[in-house]
User: Fold this.
Amino acid sequence: MNEMNYQDYVARIEYSNEDGLFVGHIAGIKDVVGFHGESVLELRDAFEEAVTDYLEACEKTRRIPVISYHAIKS
Assistant:
């Protein structure tokens, strides 16, 4: 399993042979936030969009966003 970083967030990345896609999810937060892409570039864009969407959802619901536990260790 590989990781990708963006802002204070870390994603766990896997490749799905079945779907022919890179699949990721933000690690270390309670919410399930997933994303995917056919290429590493698409995956990077999808990850950044997922983080932005997560932060906007937290702001809308007045929740404090959680920082990935992996980012805290780094």
